[in-house]
């Protein structure tokens, strides 16, 4: 559903850019899920994106930014244009995925802030109804039906901070009794492993495809109320031998490269999925009026949603009547799901519909969602603890064929790595502990070229995170479908409440200004190569100063007895150091070109 606000509202003047991350947080009054996870790529990079209003088109952004410390920075125009193009390509993939399950957008007019929030809650309610009423997606791999909803809004409180987000996908999936344990144990950490599984699955006898009715959440808005639909009460619990069902949460990431990112570059995406599950569990816990079934579990650290407190924090009047134009569009929408909104309001002893009644409608739907998960018989969480990431390719890239070019590029990249890593020295603290390395998960391709593309992919994730929460909805695009071979690979991982809590506490302390920002770790300087702020970055400058301060001559081990010979050796070493310093000081970095295996110039 989309929001059509009253066109007569006066245009608001754009406020000046924020001066820091705490200033940005104070102005908003809430954080998005992306605000909590995307800075893990590089907190300085994320700050520069916020200060430069990177959610706007490049032509509308300020040419320079001034940080809290007084430094003035300018972004590299070529990198800005390159990343904007890549970002738009990634957003197009998400748009196509959404329209595969929601080809029709329903327009609901709003006039007040209470209308706007009622629409937000109604959006969540419609997605919940779609999940409960849709058939179970059967099959495996490419043969599995699309029994899912996409772009599900979620709201909640995390450590006293209001957090909002949009879940990419929730799937209602069939789970066989005999294979449930095996299904939970499957984890693909590399593309090689996933492709091996896919090849094995493709050679097995194929099953009939699931009915196309599995993906009909928004088209159902136009169905007749008398049309037969699968109601929650009609779904019987599965017998011990029959397949049950469960709900699985996942997120889609797009990449320029054709391989899965290493585990340390999946960190932000994994924390994102875990945060979504925590918020969903909080919504469900807040809606329950009685203890849930014993076999269903929730995130122990989830905060039950308190809508009364939330409305007060947002300065909303939950008992103000909603506008006639909003109700005109909302009533037929509810009827398409078999609910008479006017009758629901009357059953709650009221004559007019308010935000409070939409909240009651949502909580009723969430309780039905919990009940349906219980009927599925899978146990565990209402949203299963096994979360997933699907990596898709943005464009088809030609494989390089010239080995000589690859060798030359690798040699140049090695020199570049040594030059950049020399600037940043090892730093302690939690930042280094949060980052791990696992080269075994990478494909057997040119490693350094792969790192550059991984850096660009990861930085675009952070850039998209800023735009997702600050930019207006993009206009509708023609419906397209994505080919199955656009999937690079899938990664499964377990929800970890303790690790998530550690991450969220650090993230919130950063937004509140309770700790200093932290840049990339010494072994992740490749992330700087695609950053438009690299040449003015305060973190890199600070690490360079530390490197210079610690660059005093170290004591040498004397093994020669001849004093004259020792003196000559010292003079020779000092001359070599001076020559090296002169070489690096006169080197024209702007003239250095680094090319990938295809011969394309790579920005570094």
UniProtKB/TrEMBL annotation:
Residues 176-186, 432-447, 558-568 have a biased composition (Basic and acidic residues). Signal peptide: none annotated. Residues 201-217, 224-234 have a biased composition (Low complexity). Residues 1-23, 176-244, 428-447, 548-568 are annotated as: Disordered. One of its GO terms (biological process) is interstrand cross-link repair. One of its GO terms (molecular function) is single-stranded DNA 5'-3' DNA exonuclease activity. Belongs to the EXO5 family. This is Exonuclease V. It comes from Sporisorium reilianum f. sp. reilianum.
């Amino acid at each position: 559903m989309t929001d059509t606000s009253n066109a007569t509202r006066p245009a608001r003047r754009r406020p000046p850019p924020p001066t820091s991350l705490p200033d940005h947080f104070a102005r908003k009054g809430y954080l998005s899920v992306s605000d909590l996870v995307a800075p893990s790529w590089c907190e300085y990079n994320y700050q520069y994106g916020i200060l430069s209003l990177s959610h706007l088109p490049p032509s509308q952004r300020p040419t320079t930014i001034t940080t809290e410390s007084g430094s003035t920075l300018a972004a590299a125009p070529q990198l800005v244009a390159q990343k904007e193009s890549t970002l738009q390509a990634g957003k197009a993939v998400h748009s196509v995925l959404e329209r595969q399950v929601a080809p029709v957008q329903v327009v609901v007019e709003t006039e007040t802030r209470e209308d706007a929030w009622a629409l937000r809650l109604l959006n969540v309610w419609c997605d919940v109804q779609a999940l409960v009423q849709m058939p179970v997606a059967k099959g495996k791999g490419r043969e599995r039906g699309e029994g899912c909803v996409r772009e599900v809004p979620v709201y909640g409180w995390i450590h006293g901070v209001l957090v909002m987000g949009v879940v990419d996908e929730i799937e209602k999936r069939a789970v066989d009794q005999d294979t449930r344990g095996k299904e939970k144990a499957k984890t693909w950490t590399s593309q090689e492993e996933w492709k091996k599984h896919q090849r094995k699955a493709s050679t097995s006898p194929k099953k009939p495809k699931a009915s196309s009715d599995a993906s009909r959440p928004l088209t159902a808005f136009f169905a007749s109320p008398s049309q037969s639909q699968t109601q929650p009460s009609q779904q019987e619990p599965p017998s011990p031998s029959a397949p049950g069902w469960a709900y699985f949460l996942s997120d889609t990431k797009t990449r320029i490269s054709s391989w899965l990112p290493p585990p340390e570059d999946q960190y932000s995406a994994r924390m994102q999925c875990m945060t979504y599950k925590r918020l969903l569990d909080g919504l469900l816990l807040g809606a329950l009026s009685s203890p849930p079934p014993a076999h269903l579990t929730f995130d122990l650290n989830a905060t039950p949603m308190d809508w009364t407190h939330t409305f007060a924090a947002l300065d909303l009047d939950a008992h103000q009547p909603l506008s006639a134009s909003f109700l005109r569009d909302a009533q037929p929408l509810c009827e398409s799901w078999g609910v008479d909104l006017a009758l629901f309001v009357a059953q709650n002893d009221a004559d007019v519909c308010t935000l409070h009644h939409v909240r009651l409608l949502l909580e009723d739907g969430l309780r039905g969602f919990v009940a349906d998960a219980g009927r599925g018989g899978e146990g565990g969480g209402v949203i299963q603890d096994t979360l997933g990431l699907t990596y898709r390719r943005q464009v088809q890239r030609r494989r390089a064929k010239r080995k000589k070019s690859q060798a030359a590029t690798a040699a140049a990249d090695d020199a570049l790595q040594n030059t950049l890593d020399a600037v940043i020295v090892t730093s302690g603290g939690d930042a280094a502990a949060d980052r791990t390395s696992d080269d075994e998960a990478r494909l057997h391709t040119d490693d350094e070229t792969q790192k550059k593309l991984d850096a660009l992919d990861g930085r675009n994730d952070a850039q998209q995170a800023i735009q997702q929460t600050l930019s207006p909805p993009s206009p509708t695009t023609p419906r397209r479908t994505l080919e199955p071979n656009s999937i690079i690979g899938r990664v499964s991982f377990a929800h970890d409440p303790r690790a998530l809590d550690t991450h969220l506490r650090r993230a919130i302390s950063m937004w509140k200004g309770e700790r200093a920002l932290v840049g990339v770790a010494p072994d992740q300087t490749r992330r700087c190569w695609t950053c438009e702020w690299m040449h003015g970055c305060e973190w890199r400058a600070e690490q360079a100063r530390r490197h210079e301060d610690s660059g005093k001559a170290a004591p040498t081990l004397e093994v020669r007895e001849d004093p004259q010979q020792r003196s000559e050796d010292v003079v020779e070493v000092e001359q070599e150091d001076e020559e090296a310093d002169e070489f690096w000081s006169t080197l024209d970095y702007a003239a250095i070109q680094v090319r990938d295996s295809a011969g394309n110039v790579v920005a570094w």
